[in-house]
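Changelog note: in this version the structure field was regenerated for every chain. One regenerated record is shown below for reference.
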Amino acid sequence: MHARTSASLLSTTILVAAGILANPAQPTAHLVNGRFFGPTSSQPLALNANESLLAVANADNDSITLFGVNGTQLNRLAEVEVEKEPNGVAVLPDGSKAYAADTVSGTVSVIRINRDRGVFRLVDRIRVGTEPYGLALTPNGTKLYVTNARSNSVSVIDTQSDSVIRTIADVGLEPRGLAVTNDDDGDDADETVYVRITRPHRTRAESRTARS
């Protein structure tokens, strides 16, 4: 059973699923014309689209480690200090920025990356909800979705301005995991975002259109 509300500006759909997929599949993403090919999901480690850059969240020492990837070889590039207890990480398709969900601090840290110049630098902290946990990018990397576990909400960040452009409230109790579809076009406004609820208070799935 579904409940749906509509918004004319944007057709991105948020599906909040209570307890779906206890062990969700780990999707892969590849580069097609500067964007991801295949779905993305929230993880404690993330690749850019051509799989040449790996970011790893270190919740125990408040940092993100960045690796260059060449086949099965890893080259440690940098370790960047972020805010308190990063649990989720995401990397833009072109590898120019990485984002970390700082769970204790209530922020998303922004790391600027320029491998040619050796630049790996924390440049911003975006205030979101309480206990941000999961991060997932849209296929073209224009929007970043953030689950706020204790606010029961999802923040939507514009990755060009690195600012919150919408907060989707009341998605369910303790949202943590995220997954974003990819319909293989240049429009990020028509994708579906799935949110995993850790403590479901209802068994039906709820869909709503988010204006962002």
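Spot check on this record: The CA atoms of residues 43 and 75 lie 20 Å apart. Confidence is low (pLDDT under 50) at residues 1-13, 17-33, 201-212.
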